[in-house]
Specification:
By secondary structure, the chain is of the alpha/beta class. The chain is about 35% helix and about 25% strand. The chain folds into two domains: about 5-155, HUPs (Rossmann fold, 3-Layer(aba) Sandwich); about 185-305, Beta Barrel (Elongation Factor Tu (Ef-tu), domain 3). It has helices at about 5, 25-40, 55, 70-80, 90-95, 100-110, 130-140, 160-165, 170-180, 195-200, 285-305; strands at about 10-15, 45-50, 85-90, 110-115, 145, 150, 155, 180-190, 205, 215-225, 230-240, 250-255, 265-275. It is elongated.
């Protein structure tokens, strides 16, 4: 880009990162960028990636995501960012030097400030450390600022820690670092209809993308509606040992709901873990436990949302 062309771009305060989950640390950083842009009379921008860089660089690790892309973008935009740029992360992009990557950004933005997390690095071999980026900024006319980690109850908010909490079923602790309940979304697909036979029909969901699934157990959940009333529910995650299932499933019983959801997308917010998954001696004892789970979920959801009755 020529200097003449660049001058017509608005000055921009930007941040860059994966922002998986858009947890409270990400939120604080993005809000700071929006505030700085407002103070300077500049545009604010958030640059993120899809797919997740780890999916490209280490596909064998199969890191579970904390938010579907559309949720990640919606959460970022809710904070008032002027523009969100989604960069297609490819093996060739991963091989770019820090200089090449900054040049890519400056084709889109006239950078005035670049804000990054304390552990951020970009470019081939993570060679674009904060010090390297600061030197590039001095040469290219923008400042680099590092944003400190954000703690909740003395714990640093991080995507890695949130994944660990979810894997252990600690959805309430994960919510404290996310700043909201953890959310799954997926299409309702046909199951074996065993829940209907027991008197508690369930919606089995096929998860979108490679989303992190809370550890096996039973949870109180809330399903925000799109054009329909929000619904309280009980989710079972696991293998259903009472029936010797061989496939891990996520199935939701929606309290006081009657209707057909097949083929529709269901959004599920996990509010609290009720118990671990367990094997019951009979279908009757399972039914008794389900009734108890539903009542417990209603009581919890009443406290959380005021919606369940």
């Amino acid at each position: 880009m020529t200097p003449e062309a660049e001058v017509h771009l608005p000055e921009t305060v930007a941040t860059i990162g994966v922002f998986d989950g858009v947890h409270v640390g990400h939120q604080a950083l993005i809000r700071r960028v929006v505030e700085r842009a407002r103070d300077l009379g500049a545009m604010s921008a958030c640059v993120t990636f899809s797919p997740h860089p780890e999916d490209v660089l280490r596909p064998d690790r199969e890191i579970a995501h904390l938010a579907a892309l559309e949720d990640r973008l919606a959460l970022i935009k809710q904070m008032g960012v002027s523009e969100v740029m989604v960069v297609d992360f490819t093996p060739s992009l991963a091989q770019k030097s820090p200089e090449e990557f900054i040049e890519l950004l400056q084709r889109r933005f006239r950078l005035r400030e670049l804000w990054i997390g304390s552990d951020f690095a970009l470019g081939r071999g993570r060679s674009g450390t904060p010090g390297v980026l600061a030197a590039l900024g001095r040469d290219r006319g923008f400042q680099v600022h590092q944003f400190p980690p954000v703690k909740v109850g003395g714990v640093v908010a991080s995507s890695t820690l949130i994944r660990l909490m979810l894997a252990e079923g600690r959805v309430e602790e994960a919510a404290s670092l996310l700043g909201r309940p953890y959310r799954l979304r997926g299409e309702v697909v046909s199951g074996d209809r065993r829940g209907r036979v027991l008197g508690f029909p369930t919606a089995n969901i096929a998860l979108r993308e490679r989303l992190c699934v809370p550890g096996d157990g039973v949870y109180a959940v809330f399903c925000p509606g799109r054009g329909v009333p929000a619904l309280a529910g009980v989710a079972n995650v696991g293998m259903r040992p009472t029936f010797a299932s061989h496939r891990r499933q996520v199935e939701i019983h929606l309290i006081d709901f009657q209707g057909d959801l097949y083929g529709q997308e269901l959004v599920v917010d996990f509010l609290a873990r009720l118990r671990g998954e367990q094997r019951f001696a009979s279908a009757e004892s399972l039914v008794a436990q389900i009734r108890q789970d539903i009542q417990t979920a209603k009581d919890l959801l009443q406290l959380h949302t005021g919606q369940a009755r």
